[in-house]
């Protein structure tokens, strides 16, 4: 009887730990989604305000025309919104690939990705979802470049 009690107790502890880990991960995903949504809102505000456009663009776009900066911010907001949808499971890999191919089909979209890819890869760290997200864009770009070469 003591062995059975010990096994039941161990099982209860294991289930409790699994629930704790699951809740913590769910909380992290909720926080990430909130941050991404806030980022999109900030980008939207920056694109509407000429003073904020320059501040949001940073050094990488310091010599660019205001229109190019606004398009860059639009792309950033769009990609961030896709990332949010991807993170919460509202986009399949196939759908994300179609969005990526659409963005990268245009020269301006490719320039955007070239400017931001390194930062996005650097931010992904050990986040498998974010690494996959970036890989989908890289794959779409590779397919476009292969099609253009052929």
Polypeptide structure, described:
The structure is a single chain. Helix 1 crosses helix 2 (50-57) and helix 4 (93-104) packs across helix 6. With 150 residues, the protein is mainly α. It has one domain (36-149). The radius of gyration is 21 Å and the shape is elongated. It is 86% helix and 0% strand.
Topology readout:
Layout: H1 2-48, H2 50-57, H3 66-87, H4 93-104, H5 107-124, H6 128-149
Number of domains: 1
Tally of strands: 0
Q: What does the overall shape look like?
A: elongated
Q: What percent of residues adopt helix (DSSP H or I)?
A: over 70%
Q: Taking all residues together, what is the mean pLDDT?
A: 82
What is the straight-line distance between the termini?
A: 73 Å
Topology as H/E string?
A: HHHHHH
Rg value: 21 Å
Main sheet: strands, sense, barrel: none
Give the helix tally: 6
Q: Per DSSP, what share of the residues sits in E-state strands of 2 or more residues?
A: under 5%
Q: Which stretches of 5+ consecutive residues score pLDDT under 50?
A: none
Judged by helices, strands and strand pairing, the structural class is: mainly alpha
Oligomer: single chain
